[in-house]
Amino acid sequence: MNTTSSGARVYLEPGPLAALFLGISSGFTFSMIGATLTTRLAQHGITKSAVTAFALTFLAYNFKFLWAPIVDNVRLPIIGRFGQRRSWLWLVGVLVMGAVVFLGVADPATTLFHVAVAAIIVGIAGATFDIIIDAYRIELLEPRQLGVGSGMSQYGWRIGSAASGGLALVLAAHVGWEAAYIACALFALPAMLVGVFMGEPQRHREPAKPHGLGEAIVAYFSPLTEFMRREGAVVVLLFVLIHKIGDTLANLTLRLLFNDLGFTNAEIAFYDVGVGFVALLIGIFVGGVMYERLGMKRSVLISLVLMAVSNLSFAALAAAGHTNIGMAAAVGFENFASGIGGVTVVAYLSALCNLRFTATQYALLSALASIAGRFLTATTAGAVITSMGYVNFYVVTTVVALPGVFLFWYMIRSGLADLSIGSAGKEGG
């Protein structure tokens, strides 16, 4: 009882609570150019091909590491005196609000081109907001809080995404889409207020200021070269690249499985969205407590095993056929495991960062963690399912996940899991 209450108390500390509000502002921009914009375009009679083309606006999130060094190195005039992280947080927050308002006033019925431009601007502004939010969160949290802080950030992301999306639909029905988007722009404020009340992160380290073009080029690549100089850097980057492949392959094909098994939209909404969401929230909480109690290495290894094994639950569902109990069990287990992994692995990626290059290194690591699985899903998953069936496909995704598990186990045994940690994951760093 005391252990549980002690593990829960860390969620109420200022740092993790700040991470919650940072997550809220991070999640809402994704919703504005995701489901919310899709609904708005559909209601205006835009063709399906045009609607799906708007998914390209998310590319900014995949390539944000390209301009992350600007956030690390460029000191803003005037407001820069309040600190590197806070000044960028406030500036980009204002830009995000303006971009969302612009998207709201752009009328799909008049000119779809303006809507497309506005959506791209929101995507770029939102991705940049994520860069500074992630850097602020990592530098604000103490190493022992990285797990819980990652969990609170994910809670916030879900709240921001769901609340802004829901509010937009309600307001659009009563006062129109323009007013709905203007109101939702206020979701940028929680992160900006964190900067006001929490101040500049004490663990922020200013990188050396470049003088001249040559030094500027060196500074741009410094985050990568610093990481590559660490012992076992190649092994660590290989782990980051492959550890989510199996999980991503499985998750991005689940709706195909549910459709082919004959589940109705109502059943999918209840079990995949409803039950899955609750299980995810529980997993996030458990992941935070695990990280606090078991430490980084054991909690990450356990979460990798759980995420790999969870894919077998969908192989079992595919074999069993249309069964609501089976769907609830499979979706619940997978989301529970993903919640734990989302906390522990994100905390590990955060700990890998050097506090002099937090924004750039985390943007790069998070991009690497998702790119391989998405590429393989887009290019091979459909053909593999067609050739071998769902049961064998999900068994294969489990097998594909095992190299990441064994590689991290090797990193623990060889000491690389400790040696690779940056100053963000060290006390006094």
Can you put this structure into words, describing what you see?
The chain has 429 residues and is mainly α. It has two domains: 12-204, Growth Hormone, Chain: A; 222-425, MFS general substrate transporter like domains (Growth Hormone, Chain: A). 78% of the residues lie in helices and 0% in strands. The chain contains 20 helices and no strands. It has helices at residues 2-9, 14-32, 35-43, 48-53, 59-62, 68-73, 84-105, 112-140, 146-175, 177-184, 189-198, 212-228, 233-242, 245-251, 254-260, 265-294, 296-320, 324-351, 358-414, 416-419. α2 runs antiparallel to α8 (112-140), α7 packs antiparallel against α11 (189-198) and α16 (265-294) packs parallel to α18 (324-351). The longest helix has 57 residues, at 358-414. The chain is globular. It starts with a helix and ends in a 10-residue tail after the last helix. The model has no long low-confidence stretch (mean pLDDT 87).
